[in-house]
UniProtKB/TrEMBL annotation:
It holds the Pfam family MMR_HSR1. GO terms for biological process: translation. Required for a late step of 50S ribosomal subunit assembly. Has GTPase activity. It comes from the Bacteria. Its main location: cytoplasm. It comes from Kandleria vitulina DSM 20405. The keyword GTP-binding applies. Belongs to the TRAFAC class YlqF/YawG GTPase family. MTG1 subfamily. Transmembrane segments: none annotated. This is Ribosome biogenesis GTPase A. Residues 4-169 form the CP-type G domain. InterPro entries: G_CP_dom, GTP-bd, GTP-bd_ortho_bundle_sf, GTP-bd_ribosome_bgen, GTPase_MTG1, P-loop_NTPase. CDD domains: Ras_like_GTPase, YlqF.
């Protein structure tokens, strides 16, 4: 087992609940399934971040899908004031029965201890910093917690490790690599740019045709030979200069990806659950 995995595994033993952050725009692709092996049966809350950038209807489908798999799931916009509190409240709710049982057995009331995990760029630091800003992190000098391990005590009922568990997504699957690139979590150059461009345009045409129409006055039939006409149309609408009489395809792709990351197509989810 790799060092990062071993570290996460040893911390998991010390906590009551894992908060697994995934990106709402691609909740499957922005998960690393190694976490499942490490976490095993520990209570887990799946939090889909970046709710504001995703398609609400699709996010609702994902919440249902995760619940069907037996997970607690919710979505948040961590950029919205105080929304992180919903995560804490949900953790408390998920563990209410367990904590009540402990109390009824005569155990001393104690805070729930949680840990955040996720692949890069899903909002782990944003969430942890929001908690840390309000409360000083205290070095854990309790049993089982190493000196270097910092714990943020949010209130008397909730504590959080200040360092998240991070694992990179697995890019072995090309579809996962595409989705993770399209949500901006990895550099685009992991894949041939034109493949990614064609995939993204085709996906938008299928699921968000009005976004393409609005931005580029573009609509096309997948059955027809559409790729070159799409390049031409984007170049025309955006008044791109021709280079030696030819459309500058690289510039078209630059423009498209800039538009994409600037949110020009509105709220877009890049994957849907298999329902
Ligand atoms: N729009 C939006 N942006 C968010 C949200 N949550 C996080 N972000 C942004 O996403 C980017 C990545 O957030 P981080 O908190 O750095 O993510 P991380 O998981 O700690 O990333 P690593 O440090 O790479 O592991 C930042 O630009 C955040 O401002 C959200 O709910 N909505």
């Amino acid at each position: 087992m790799a060092k990062a995995e071993r570290e996460i595994e040893s911390k998991i033993k010390l906590i009551d609940i894992v908060i697994e952050l995934v990106d709402a725009r691609a909740p499957y692709s922005s998960k690393n399934r190694t976490f499942d092996r490490i976490i095993k049966n520990k209570p887990r809350l799946i939090v889909m971040t970046k709710k504001d950038l995703a398609d609400n209807q699709v996010t609702e489908l994902w919440i249902d899908a995760f619940k069907k798999q037996g997970y607690e799931a919710m979505t948040v916009n961590l950029k919205s004031f105080n929304e992180y509190k919903k995560i804490i409240n949900k953790c408390k709710l998920v563990l209410r029965e367990k904590m009540e049982k402990e109390r009824s057995r005569g155990l001393k009331p104690r805070a729930i201890r949680a840990m955040v995990i996720g692949v890069p760029n899903v909002g782990k630091s944003t969430f942890i910093n929001q908690l840390a800003k309000r409360k000083a992190a205290v070095t854990g000098n309790r049993p089982g917690v190493t000196k270097a391990q910092q714990i943020i005590r949010v209130d008397k009922d909730f504590e959080l490790f200040d360092t998240p568990g991070v694992l990179a997504p697995k890019y072995t699957d090309e579809q996962i690599a595409k989705n993770v690139a399209l949500i901006g979590s990895i550099k685009l150059d992991i894949l041939p740019r034109d493949d990614l461009f064609i995939y993204a345009i085709s996906y938008l045409n299928k699921y968000y045709p009005s976004a393409l129409k609005e931005r580029y006055d573009l609509s096309f039939d997948e059955q027809e030979d559409w790729v070159l006409p799409v390049f031409e149309q984007i170049a025309k609408v955006r008044h791109l200069k021709k280079v030696r009489g030819e459309t500058d395809y690289e510039r078209v792709m630059d423009l498209f990806f800039k538009d994409l990351f600037d949110g020009a197509f509105g709220s877009v989810s890049w994957e849907r659950p298999n329902v």
